[in-house]
Amino acid sequence: MKKSWLLLLTALLVILAFGLTSCQKKEAAEPEAEKKVKVVLYVNGTLGDKSFFDSANRGVEMAVKELGIEAKTIEGGYAPERWEPDIAQLAEGDWDIIIAGTWQLQEYLEKIAPKHPEKKFFTYDTSVDYSKGGLDNVYSILYSQNEGSFLVGALAAMITTSDMELANPDKVIGFLAGMDIPVINDFKVGFEQGAKYIDPDIKVLVSYAGSFSDPAKGKELILAQYDQGADIAFNVAGETGLGLLDAAKEKNRYAIGVDSDQYLLYKDSDPEKASHIVTSMMKNVDFSLYRGIKYHIEGKLAYGKAEILGIEKDGVGVADNENFLKLVPPEFAARIKELEKKIVSGEIKIDTAFGN
User: Where are the alpha helices (H) located in the chain, listed in sequence order?
Assistant: First the structure.
């Protein structure tokens, strides 16, 4: 009898031990199932430009909030010698996705990504050269900034020939470029084409600052354009372009922001400056990075190639905030919507600074 009880007790202990082991294994597996995607955004500059890099950071923050990822943003500064070693170090870390945009980082990604095939890389506002091979783990995002610039060029032309409060009789508009590079010139050709689509006699003043981080230089150049008759100017210069917004406030002229909705960024902190920002040409870097991360999580992202986001895919557009609705006559706003449809349908072909 004792032997039977002993056997029964032994069997129960074995079953209990097996159950505990199974539970422990299950508990150990649960964190793996709940593991968050880890994303690092590397900016070859600093945050605070209220434009391009801030938009990229906003997209990653949106993914943290809505997609539950873990993320960090690293500011690499403006010293180029830092960029390659910084990205190489991040690739050695435990990040699942390394995001590094702009044409200035392209060659570094082309060298580093093939050495880490287990990692995924995003680049934006440029594309790696996939013909070099070994870049099947890189997703490139390009934007049809020429499309959005066409729209704000058309708007600027309508404004400068209107009886709006700050418009003058001269058919002159301004364009501030950060640097003389293809992506900035793609803005320029679209802006000029849009303006001349409305009125072939429009004169577009163009200034290159040679920097994306010199607001004082930007202000100096745009003050000169306003003095030459421009009553509205387009900022395509990153942090340098903040000087354009200062100049618009000082001279009581109109401004067009870029990348982010710059009216909203100044609405509370400097409402007088904000009141001069008619609209912004939205290059939706934030949306594009959020979208890419979402598709990665869903297993839908096509690595190993570039994707171009234009008006149709919400990559670019015109900010129609409260100030836009307050300042811009309804017929101008309606014309912009009409032009959007014609661009998407292919009825209007936009020029580009890139080879076709």
Answer: 2-33, 52-67, 80-92, 106-112, 145-160, 182-198, 215-227, 242-251, 262-266, 271-274, 285-297, 322-327, 330-345
